[in-house]
Amino acid sequence: MSFNSNLDTLYRQVIMDHYKNPRNRGVLNDSIVVDMNNPTCGDRIRLTMKVEDGKVDDAKFEGEGCSISMASASMMTQAIKGKDIETALNMSKIFSDMMQGNEYDDSIDLGDIEALQGVSKFPARIKCATLSWKALEKGVATDENAGDKS
Prior knowledge:
By secondary structure, the protein is of the alpha+beta class. Helices cover about 50% and strands about 20% of the residues. It has a single domain (about 5-150), classed as Sufe protein. Chain: A, CATH 3.90.1010.
């Protein structure tokens, strides 16, 4: 077995672990709520986040979809907890660049999220992987806009 083959196997195992044993599954009360879906394949997600003092205090998700979509949501909620909004949004940009097959900033440790980089070879699956990240971006924008109105 080659190194790449072993790495692919490890990445598949990490993805399946997050799919079968999702982290942060559930709903937070009194939080930002974002519902998103991918009409192409039927993936849907509800992301709930508590943001205080510019930091993601907690994040949870509910939904249904393919293993890529649900594993990505599990990985994302795990990665953004405790991060300031700027860092969480930067991680989202890095993830998007990785999914598009572009060069990306590797100075931030993405942890398990790197297991999804192989998805970039399957254009039809990129929307599955990025759904939860788009929900994060929408939630932050909604929260910032709500703050501007008060």
